[in-house]
Fold this protein.
Amino acid sequence: MNKLDILCVDDHREVLAALRKDLEKFEQWFEIDECESASEAYELMEQLHSENKIPAIIICDHVMPGQNGIDFLVQINGEKRFDGVKKVVLTGLATHQDTIIAINKAGIDRYVEKPWYSDELQDMVKVLATEFILEKGMEYTDFHEIIDKETLYDALNKTY
Amino acid sequence: MITMDRTDQNINVQIIIDKYFEDNPKTLVIKSGEVLLDRDKPNDKLYLVLDGELVGYSLDTHQGELEMFHVSKGMFAGVYSFFSESYSSSVKLVAKTDSRIAYITRDEIEEYARKEKEDYSREFIPIIVNELKLRHHAFVKISAEKEATLQQLVKTEKLASLGQMAASIAHELNNTISILHHNSQWLAREISSHLKLENELYTYFFNRGLNEGRRSSTKFIRNKQKELRNKFYYPDKLLKKIAAIYPTKEEEQLFGKVGEITAEKYTYYWELGATLHDMLVASDHSRHVVSSVRKLGSPRNDKLESIHINETLEEALLLLSSKLQEIQVDTSFGVLHSFIGGKGELIQVWVNIIKNAVDSLKMSSIKNPVIRIQTTYRKNIFVTIEDNGPGIPPELREKIFRPNFSTKVSGLDFGLGLGLTIVQRIIESYSGHIEVESEPGKTKFTVVLPIGDGDE
């Protein structure tokens, strides 16, 4: 079984460490990568791509030095080779205008406000991972313990 | 001859003065406070002020008498009642100072006009128009002043209620932050002493995480992890954890020797320490934010006493010691006059300025970061705080003292944009001032604090 990749991007190591602790319970199914800037994350994604991999989920801080999270996700959204990557913005600075840009231009799947709750974040990761697995036509039985049942049934109902 | 210095009026006015007021000027003298014309009282005279000043009042339904206009040397009064043919005054005209006034009656003007076969009202049009203009100006001015006062009032009220709200939020948060802070500290102590009983090395790695926090960047971790793959046959995940602690050569050797299970334990205890470090830093930061907000909202609550500026600087450096670890701090303290002020406030001033320098140095990752602090005494106390960071861009230099200005907008280091606003407010409360000079490689804040008159 190939593990799924989750890429976490935040300029604060403390936040990355906290995110990692929330995601550690999925270690069996996920590889967790961490980056401190958009440019570092882009570099890592190119490297993954050269190994024929793309992240299943990017969880990205909004306001960072250098390129900000929204602009980074807009860029990713515009590249064919990163099609299907689930994009999550994690932000301490949610303003209405930014939300609109994020949803319209960057194809953001979820918008999470800091401080976040561990169980909500974990549930969200399950749903997004399930969507990714189904969309990519992966063998979902490998992941049955983390598959979100509702998302799976919805998808199956649509197919038949 | 009566001549008036009238720069704002048409030459026609002088002609009128020559014509009607020259030949037979009837004058009267009116003492300060006396009423020349009253509202709705008959008037059939046109007045020309030769000396002094009068004020016209209109009746306002809300506020009683409202000052409408001033009439001074060279200006006409009674224009409205005279030319509107109501022969009744619309305002009350009171002498502000002792005044000398010339006048003509309606009968006299008509008599004169009959003799000359002229239509006098045409000649007086400039005066009437000018009068209207003056009154209009006065009215606009009054409205504008009123509007400005109102806006100022609204602003002050907003600030006051914002301050009250900030103070009550700050109070609430202080309780919760204290709980987080003290309990984190307690946990850190307990875990440390508990681990000591089990294994000195557990305590060692725990304390390392607790004291130093997360020194490894994500890039460093990935590179180190790669490097360690060639050295140890440990699972990749463990290699990542070892890389995260920023291991020294000796520690790396130790990890290689002890085997997977023990190495896993060491990194686990390090992570415990680093997590508590994150919590303590976060609660410290919250406390700093809350105290800034509260200072902004409330009047001075420090007591004034005789203090030594050098000591307040040393305390500020002590408070910031954890942030200053990788920065060289040069101090050159002169012999200063003692200063009457609030100790806490001054410490806050230095902490804010030094913290900005630290943040700018850290953000630019300059090679040999240095902060220089100097105090001198030349009639006033001069404190300069200088860093060799990238400098403040010229377009931002003007804005840095304004509220809501911040370059720090994210995560744990986010700024409220209040730091330098508070600094400026405090310094100005001591009649001092703050200046900034900045170029790449040198940013210098100079604070000048005057010592009281009695001490000079």
Summary: The first helix of chain A runs from residue 13 to 23. The interface with chain B takes residues 10-18, 21, 27, 34-36, 40, 61-65, 92-93 of chain A (CB under 8 Å). Residues 112 and 120 of chain A are 10 Å apart (CA to CA). The mean pLDDT of chain A is 89.
